[in-house]
Amino acid sequence: MSRHTTGLPRRLASVLAAAALAVTLPQTAHAAETSADGPNTTPTAPAPADRAAEDRLAAEAELEHAAVPPGPLTFGAEALSSVESAAADAAAGASCGISAKEATAMALAPVWPEIVTGTQATPSPMTLSRFDNQAGLYDPAGRDGLFFNPGVGLWQMDSAGLGTDNTAGEAIDSAWVSGLVTPYIVDKYCSALNGGSSAPDARATAWNDWNACSGGECDTVYWRAFNDGVTADGNVDRYGGAEPRTCEYQGSTYGCLFVDIADAQGADWWAAPDAGRSPLPHPFYVLRDDSGGSTEEVRVFLGEDSGHGTDVTATRPFGGDARDSLTWTDGRGLCDTTEGRGAC
Length: 344
Known about the structure:
The chain has ten helices and twelve strands. The chain is of the alpha+beta class.
């Protein structure tokens, strides 16, 4: 669900499509203001003109690299099974005539234009956006590798759109996200078809949340998937190399996901230092915190992973766009009870 390239609410995930050798915004430009009480943990949102310019540049970068490489389409075996299952259910309950095969190809079509570039490779469920460069995504203290990538996963779920009410961990979980995205696409297709659109126009409507689809690449991938099929790749697991763990955070126990880009499975061009406009993040944990009468996405960078000497936590309220709603807090970590590391 792309979002940030246009800056419009309709976009559902972050821009990503390909490596662009662009200059990364210096982290020192985002140093926090200080007071007698120490660093301000809430970053200042960028001025509207800066935000619009960043959104436009990201959109241009994606469209320049949306073409899908030639070759057979492959998809993680667990992820493909999840999409096929969700597509069968969505087709069975659809308000228009659509087969499970059509629904599967339609759901998969945006993935390659969004997150695969260079040579053909299996899309990675761990994929993190590399073209977002808005000031609000940076650690306000300017420390390297403490960056909140807003676009996450196969469909680049983004906090500015459909991804506003899920965490990076859920977006990476191909089983979870397939169950959300697949019926969403099928429902949009059927609504357009029932409203009088032709099948090609209805497919375009179903994909208009992804900027990478705007040039017709998704329809090309749709027909490749429909006519030639998609091969299951058993070397790319459900989480694309991220690891489910159990964590203790703020006195409670949570299921969490440990995300280390060095372990990414499948297409990993985005994990190279020069692959985009934004920095690479240090390893982080992510969880959903439902305590306190509200829900937040929590990402924790342990000091032992970042080398910054302290644990740093970035939180985003559900419903908030990470570009202007993050709070960064030093000294708040978690305990990874699965591995016995962190603040245990």
